[in-house]
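Not sure how to ask, but would you mind making up any protein sequence you like and the tokens describing how it folds?
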Amino acid sequence: MNLANRITLARIFLVPIVTIFLLVRLDLGQLTIGEYSISYNQVCALLLFIIAASTDGLDGYIARKRKIVTNLGKLLDPLADKLLMAAVLIALVEMGKLGAWVAIIIISREWAVTGLRQVALLEGAVLAASKWGKWKTAVQITMIIVLLLNNFPFNFIDLRIDLVVVWAAVLITVYSGVDYFLKNKNLIPVSK
């Protein structure tokens, strides 16, 4: 197994570890800065999430640069991304930090686009990620980081950046999904 695929697998293996830190009461204590407090569980989950999310571009870069792109990598990379995002979104809902409707919209868009990509593969086409898809990923990652940080440091000045990034994530997720389907509508069979 090549390096790029090992990095992708590492991202998949981090998913349950991040989830455990978010949802299992390990009672590692609290980090307190003035009136701000965050559990060490959440800090560990945040750091592991950032590491996992940052490997998303790294594995693809290594595979292309070293010319070691494989079918396994093409299958595992988007799967790893979706597993990580879905697990953390569901955990955030369980923790009361994110509305279920937001998680449903984001996860539904991801699986709908995955379905369209599968249709494209059956037709012999490969659908590349669009610039809106890349922006969507960046905004979703930012949203998760802000939510895991409990809106730090913006809570000190009573600025609800958490709400702003949640709405930004929802809007760009919906827009990028619609854009993706419109640009590839020729792949959707329409019966007459």
The radius of gyration is 18 Å.
